[in-house]
Design a protein that fits this description.
Length: 686
């Protein structure tokens, strides 16, 4: 109701009175007509406002009476039908609500030009959805208990919460399956949907809930409100695992969760929640915690009070520039720590580890990337989006995330003088080392000369970032690690020196088990790292010559240069290979690359091949059409088309999982239809 309408009505009344005195009846008719039109609009807006007020006060009878008047007096306005339908839905009269909307639209009482027409259409669709849901529930009510028990096993937690309201039989059947209620993931796409059933149902299952994982996007305010209200209304006092990936939930609510489950909580993951809760808040409450991941943008603020719980064995901290005294306090009071990861710290802390680290420590990592939920919670991807195709991880991952490792790869200014004492302290437990040389030019050998000849028979994994000047030093390290199974080079210009060292340990494999995984990774965003083609080819030829005795299962060549297509063809002769990953690796022309890639399609040459990944390499349809293995990933291939992918699918015999991403000339619908027919699970992104 605008002020303009009121002003027009007031003016009309004034003009009518003046015209009547002058007996100017034409003006009287004109002004009264104009005033009555405005009165009609004012009546409409006043009715609507009163309906809203009645609804807010939950006086639905009065609201319904006014909405009926509105639809009778203004039958061509969508707003009256919207009010009436909403009121009927609140009164649980879904059939009448459907009839109200349906009549207005079927009889074309409301024109599409009405400003509220789209709102009416949206409401109509919502009513239809609820009607269908009711029909499903009516059907579900008559199902026997045996069928209900089977169905419950395949439902998501949110669906189980909804089904608690179907009938007493459903409720009891779900509560009789506590294993189905032990873990719940609330992601940005599921929180609002799963919590719309009300918090009574959540409270009902809370005594069975052992794992609660919450992932929130700051932009999703509705999901955020739903989760906050849940934490206010539900008491979780049996949690063993609690994960929170969000930054806006206040510390009082988090204290409540920790206090209620302080005797049962064993695993806690707080990432980007740092502005709301402190490290001391956590360890002072969770006396039985075993595994803690804490990511903060502030200083850690820890001295040694309270001491770390004796139960704590796995600790990951990412805080603002952790200092020597803070780390010393953690090491002094963390008597039983086995894994300790420290983010954002300097190389000098290696001396603190050497002096104060306990004998139980076997996994020490400095300055990793910020913690990825996928590293701590296997179901993270499912929390964000249902994925049919599982991610294939490299063998390197198990060492980097939880192996017996000392990792300083991402820590600047590390030197042999700082690192060697720590390695020697833990030489009887360390199986993996991750290190990169940050010193350039002639400085490298000066700071790393003491590392020459280091190595132990226990080392199974090396991740190295080396320079031209330090390559001989680290080649000697490789020679002294005869049990090496996995090696990864990052942004390292490898020459024959390194490949000769690798072959020297390969020749002793009958005694030690043998190299299983070989990775060279360059800089994806910078100039490609050049490696020796001759040395790499000789290395591959050695494993090809071993035939069935070869141990090499995984090869990843990513963003490097200097490699010829013929060297790639040598890969197809290594019968033990299971995983091949080529990313941005070659600069050959497409025709030559197609020939090299087609060599992977010979199943007799690669009988064990399970996974191939091609990422940003120059191949066409001709190169991929005959590729066949269990899992294929095609990423950023600008020269393949829909026809090529279809041919690959049609020619395959063993393909089960297909990933297509960033291939601009590959269309989604044809590939989706064909994979459905072929029983292949598809992950497709533009």
């Amino acid at each position: 109701m605008s002020q303009e309408s009121i002003n027009i009505l007031s003016t009309s009344v004034h003009n009518v009175n003046a015209a009547l005195q002058k007996q100017d009846f034409d003006i009287v008719i004109e002004q009264t007509t104009r005033g009555l039109n405005q009165l009609h609009q004012i009546h409409f807006h006043l009715l609507s406002a009163r309906i809203i007020a009645y609804e807010q006060k939950n006086e639905l009878d009065q609201a319904y009476s006014d909405s009926t008047i509105m639809t009778n007096e203004f039958p061509n306005s969508a707003l009256g039908y919207i009010h009436t339908t909403n009121i009927l839905m609140k009164r649980r009269k879904s059939e009448q609500a459907f009839t109200t909307c349906n009549n207005a639209l079927e009889q074309e009482l409301v024109a599409p030009s009405d400003p509220n027409y789209e709102d009416l259409m949206q409401l109509y669709r919502s009513v239809i959805d609820r009607r269908k849901q009711k029909e499903k529930i009516d059907f579900m009510k008559i199902l026997p208990k045996e069928i209900v028990s089977i169905i419950v096993e395949y439902l998501r937690m949110g669906e189980r919460l909804i089904c608690l309201n179907v009938s007493q039989r459903w409720r009891q059947t779900i509560l009789d399956c506590p294993n189905a209620l032990c873990s719940w993931i609330l992601g940005p796409f599921s929180a609002q949907r799963d919590l719309r059933v009300g918090y009574e149902n959540v409270q009902l299952i809370s005594e069975y809930l052992r794992e609660l994982h919450i992932f929130l996007l700051e932009s999703d305010q509705e999901a955020f409100k739903a989760v906050v209200n849940m934490l206010d209304n539900v008491k979780f006092d049996h949690l063993r695992t609690f994960s929170l990936y969000a930054s806006s939930i206040d510390r009082v609510r988090l204290w409540k969760v920790l206090d209620n489950s302080k005797y049962t909580l064993e695993e806690l993951y707080f990432t980007f929640a740092s502005t709301r809760i402190s490290f001391v808040d956590i360890i002072s409450r969770c006396k039985n915690i075993k595994n803690l991941t804490f990511d903060t943008t502030r200083p850690l603020g820890y001295s040694n009070n309270p001491p770390l719980p004796l139960s704590l064995t796995h600790l990951k901290i990412h805080a603002e520039q952790i200092g020597k005294m803070e780390l010393q306090a953690v090491l002094e009071t963390g008597k039983n720590l086995q894994e300790l990861t420290i983010g954002y710290c300097h190389a000098g802390l290696l001396m603190t580890f050497t002096r104060w680290g306990s004998k139980s420590l076997y996994h020490i990592v400095l300055n990793p990337n910020r913690f990825d939920p996928a590293d701590t919670i296997p179901e993270y991807q499912r929390a964000l989006k249902e994925q049919e195709v599982k991610k294939v991880n490299s063998m390197t991952k198990k060492y980097i995330t939880s192996g017996k490792m000392i990792g300083v790869h991402d820590c600047d200014d590390v030197t042999a003088q700082l690192l060697l004492p720590l390695l020697k302290k833990y030489e009887h437990t360390t199986e993996a080392i991750s290190v990169a040389v940050s010193q350039e030019g002639d400085e490298g050998p000066h700071y790393w000369r003491e590392f020459t000849g280091y190595g132990t028979p226990l080392i199974k994994f090396l991740k190295l970032g080396i320079t031209d000047k330090t390559e001989p030093i680290f080649a000697s390290v490789i020679r002294n690690c005869p049990a090496l199974e996995v090696i990864e080079f990052c942004e390292s210009r490898l020459t024959d020196i390194t490949f000769d060292a690798l072959q020297s340990i390969s020749s002793r494999e009958e005694e030690t088990g043998g190299l299983r995984c070989f990775v060279i990774r360059g800089d994806e965003d910078g100039p490609k790292t050049r490696v020796s083609d001759k040395g790499l080819r000789s290395f591959f030829e050695f494993y090809a010559s071993l035939g069935k005795k070869s141990t090499l299962e995984e090869v990843r060549l990513e963003f490097i240069s200097g490699i010829q297509a013929f060297t790639l063809r040598t890969l197809s002769q290594i019968k033990s290979l299971k995983h091949i990953n080529l990313a941005g690796t070659l600069e050959e022309n497409e025709e030559v690359m197609n020939i090299a890639i087609r060599s992977f399609s010979n199943s007799s040459s690669l009988p064990l091949l399970e996974y191939v990944s091609f990422d940003q390499i120059p191949i066409t349809d001709e190169g991929i059409e005959q590729i066949d293995c269990k899992h294929i990933k095609l990423h950023g291939l600008d020269d393949i088309t829909t026809a090529g992918v279809e041919a690959m699918i049609n020619n395959s015999n063993v393909l089960k999982y297909l990933e297509v991403a960033g291939c601009q000339d590959v269309e989604y619908e044809p590939v989706l239809n064909l994979t459905k027919i072929s029983g292949i699970k598809l992950s497709f992104t533009v």
